[in-house]
Amino acid sequence: MSQTAAAPTKSRGLEGVTALDTELSFIDGTVGELIYRGYDIRDLAKNASFEEVAYLLWKGELPTQAQLDDLEAQLRAARPVHDDLLDHLRHHTPNDANPMAAMRTALSMLAAYDDEADDPDPEANYRKAIRLTAKLPTLVAAFDRIRKGKDPIAPKQEGSTAHDFLYMLNGEAPGPAAEAIMDAALVLHAEHGLNASTFACRVIGSTMSDMYSAVVGAMGALKGPLHGGANIEVMKTLLELDESGETAQQFVDRKLEAKEKIMGIGHRVYKTLDPRATILRAMLSDLSEEKGETKWLEMSDTIRETVLERKGLDANVDFYSASVYYLLGIETDLYTPIFAISRMTGWTAHLLEQWTDNRLIRPRAEYVGPKGKTVAPIADRG
Ligand code: COA
């Protein structure tokens, strides 16, 4: 069938384009408001666990105690991963592999071990969402231990996602403060409208491909430094500044002069401070005081204030999360995989939503190349 003749609207980077309806989250970029299914992110970060938020995103309402108990039991039961996956990380993944690349491959492999991988039934898809959310923390922790020459630690299958993840990563149970911070960070990163990785996820889902294919694509999008990869770049910047002695102001001026981006700053939707950054800054402030290490907070604040003053751009979610994870003792290159652990709930919730009323997502490109050329014999070209 030929394409419609009407000139399509065009927007570079799809800015300002509304591609679909969602009941999952609402962002007001002018006032800095983020809502998951009706609940303000500040309320959720303070009063709901990551598992409650996962349920909210998947099912539409916060769970009752019985529903939460049931979901937590399913998540715990699904945390172990097949030995073949651990062997792949042990023997077929270089220790210096980018963790996002290693996890992208591991997620793809998971499909081969899931009998329901290609089952499009909504209940089967919900079960896959649970399995993916349960297994990614196990894979991230296993990869980190293996690359350090240590044995992976099997999930305890007790407690929260945050608790078991930190336990598998460090080999010891986290204290309540560390667990609470990780849990809140997971709540804050779970869902964010039609961001690049979620859009990629829904595009793949809209072809009626399977959930694994869609989240593997989303992992690829999240990895980029303009999206989830920014938290790693933020920490690299802070560490470099600490080492070089360049002041935060000098750094900002140098970057702006060179027309280079400052990571963790700016956002396509927020034109003010990202509300998640406000919460993460408060968490960083508490953690800095507890650890007696305030330099990361101070450097971050100066960078933020300087870019705000010079360019009117404010911090996004990745800006303060970097230092929070750093003070928790987490390797810098695991920050984006941790983002993915959380966002897995949002990605899969979007897929469940997409498939309730699917239509292929297929925009158009405007052709700006030449027309009317004819093929010359190869000997005559050049
Ligand atoms: N540092 C310096 N300048 C920035 C900037 C940043 N982080 N983000 C945007 N700008 C500037 C651009 O240089 C441009 O300035 P100009 O008009 O003077 O040329 C203007 O703001 C618009 O930038 P643009 O890249 O077109 O905006 P966008 O909506 O496409 O970009 C981001 C959104 C998030 C990709 C962008 O802000 C960015 O790259 N931020 C850093 C990466 C990051 O933290 N990503 C995580 C997002 S949660």
Outline the structure in words:
The longest helix has 26 residues, at 122-147. Helices cover 57% and strands 3% of the residues. It has a three-stranded antiparallel sheet. Strand 2 and strand 3 (39-40) form a beta hairpin. Helix 5 (99-112) packs antiparallel against helix 10 (211-222) and helix 8 (176-189) crosses helix 16. It is mainly alpha-helical. The protein has helices at residues 41-47, 50-59, 65-78, 83-91, 99-112, 122-147, 161-170, 176-189, 196-205, 211-222, 230-244, 248-257, 275-291, 295-311, 317-327, 335-354; strands at 25-28, 33-36, 39-40. The model has no long low-confidence stretch (mean pLDDT 96). Coenzyme A is lined by residues 13, 226-227, 230, 261-268, 311, 313, 316-318. Residues 13, 226-227, 230, 261-268, 311, 313, 316-318 line the site of coenzyme A.
Summarize the structure.
With 382 residues, the chain is mainly α. Helix content is 57%, strand content 3%.
